[in-house]
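= Tokenised fold =
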Amino acid sequence: MRLWLIISVLMYIITFAGTYWYWERLNQKKEQYLFLAALLFKLLCGLGLGALYYLYYDAGDTIKYYDRALYLFEWLLKEDNLFASLYRVLFYDKIPDALTILLSRPRAFLMVKLVALAMFFLGPWYLSISLYCSLFSFAGCWFLYRRIKNYAPGWTMPACFSLLFLPSFVFWSSGLLKDSLATAALMVIAGILLLKPEKDNYRKMMLMVLLSVISFVLLFQLKYYTAALFALSVCSWKVLALIQKRMPSIPAYMLLLIAIFSMSLVVGILGTYHPNLHFSRVWHLLWHNYEIIAQLSTPGYYLVFEAPDSVPGGVSTVAKATWSGLFAPLPWQAHEGLSLLLSVEHSLLLLCSILALLGLFSTQMKPSLIVWHLLLYVLLSACLLAIASPNYGSLVRYGVAYRPFAWMMVLSVLMQMTPLRRFVEKFEV
């Protein structure tokens, strides 16, 4: 029996035992049921995603990642010195000639290497790899849900729905896709940011710092644009929170200037690590990507924008892109079964957003600093990704990075309205 087969069986046993141990530790029966329901939903979505690509599309990223990783895995097994060959693949990109095309696609290449490496621990089966990708994504989402429950109890139900049961988010952040691992990393970072520092528990603090660094590096390697947008929003939030704490009476315009400066500094720093984030290239690359995807997409299946040639035109394009990134496709833009289902969800988000805005004006609620920056991250992500990836199919996948946060903010406002709050309180975990 091969060594990797023994290791994979041990991994399954450890995973099942660890999951059961954690489930037993949950204090309330309701939370145990919630955990099982959300985990089962996530795993089923991962299986459904694989079935969609293999049985309906018969092509796609998940199939390419698996086939190329399997080829790399089998090639490594044939090498005389497995560990030396694996080391050269991981750190020096020494790969068989059939996979050299990946050298020009570093993010896809990283995913293939990670999947091939996982095969030594989980076996060379698509089903196994897909389930573990879904499990990692679920672990990140559950971690953030628990942190939100402790940090802001009023957001518990919005976070529960948005992170664990929002259909499009759960589906497209499951299975063997980069989005699954990127989602896990993003949610872990967000959850750690909500932890209260424990000065008496130095080891835990260092572990959280290390985990956040590893998660950010992984997120940056897989989805550098999501990492950059999230980083600039977080840095601005932390800087302004520190300044407000030290100088409570500082004018609002000064806070705005400081926020702009801090965000520009973050983008400038990240631009030294990835050329696509350089100030001089961002806008050009957005439209370059738009033109390529528009040419490859079927008419009517992508968003149509015109390159702005004036300030009013730029404002109009940004507004349209932001709207589309949040709500497109709507029912009249849907052309097939999947997009029609998605349009129903987007229509509900639009309706809830309108009600939330009315609620804000009627109750005069004042969003906190962290909510303003979460809104900033959502709007920037929706705008830029709608331009860079206007195809409806790809946009819904990229939307997993920000759409659950949009739902969370909208539902948190609706939760302040008395009738809805009384109804939801009956189901609180």
